[in-house]
């Protein structure tokens, strides 16, 4: 009897002890903070030092200036043409346009204040600038590889981290709080379609036009199309707005740095047809194909990257396009003057010419113009490759002799007259 009563009294205690387990399962299913998370997914700790943590590839502009000064280079002495070369060098290493805050971006930002170099400034060593740009590109790639799109402060804290153990039992029962990424970066692998639309709206409003391809909003929408639900979390509106505004400022800065001419036109957004006209205009003034680093070469590179043009395509406005073509002609004329020496002689393809005009005809048509070739005062030209006897500008007379009408033969008539006299 007593044993039976003991069992009867013990059974409620067993049932009571099982209730928290059942309730715990239910609470765990609905992600209630009262339930401890799995052991392998410790909650990220909100570090008070997060604002001062390392922020991806971004850095203050003074850092790039200090690097240049350490190399003995004054960024104020860099012209826009030299800045374009630095941007091209870093772009080549990165595989994409150097971001805002990179060394190349700062060099262009400084050069935009004085496109023709600061008055009284000395010429800078472009090779040193390119070397710094290459090192900066490798740094950006390394940082993106180690923390792609996220800040270290936003990463989950390991369960073995001492800071996670400091809270004791309270840390074990804390809910897994998911923080928005810091303003310096955005994890495109976890963003949802809803957040991508909000980001696009904020950046559209900040720019005043739809964010172009390559913008953070456009990349976020493309990434969210692969995982519309993201990782199940949503970023707060303030963080999305801050990220959008910062990216809009970067796009505006890049647009201003790529503007040339008066009125300013964005050379980096020309389409393939407009680039072809610009190249033709500069080649006509220069006498041969424009070299690397010229306005025409930059336009052709932009046309190859996006044949249809960018969001600010000046090819759609004939006035802007004509302004670019005129600037290309001016640059071609300046380069032509630099190629022709003080004695008035230029060199193209190893041959010397008294003027760049015959060289242009030889480069474009494959032969020297006939009218200029028949000129009586045309000086002789020497083949510098073989240094043989001088060649004259006059065309060979053999071709004209062969082209003349054949002489009439009189032998038959003379023979008949002779025979007639003999018979008589």
Which labels suit this protein?
424 residues, mainly alpha, two-stranded antiparallel ribbon, 17 helices, 4 strands, 2% strand, disordered N terminus
Topology:
Layout: H1 2-29, H2 61-70, H3 80-94, H4 103-111, H5 126-146, H6 162-165, H7 169-172, H8 193-207, H9 216-224, H10 237-257, E1 259-260, E2 265-266, H11 272-286, H12 295-305, H13 318-339, E3 346-348, E4 351-353, H14 356-365, H15 370-373, H16 398-403, H17 411-423
Helix pairs in contact: 3-4, 3-5, 8-9, 8-10, 11-12, 11-13
Describe the structure in your own words.
There is one protein chain. The radius of gyration is 38 Å and the shape is globular. A hairpin with a 2-residue loop joins strand 3 (346-348) and strand 4. The strands form two sheets. It has a two-stranded antiparallel ribbon. A two-stranded antiparallel sheet has the order 3-4. It is built from 17 helices and four strands. Among the domains are: 1-34; 58-144, no CATH class; 260-339, no CATH class; 346-403, no CATH class. The protein is mainly alpha-helical and 424 residues long. Helices cover 51% and strands 2% of the residues. Helix 8 (193-207) packs antiparallel against helix 9 (216-224).
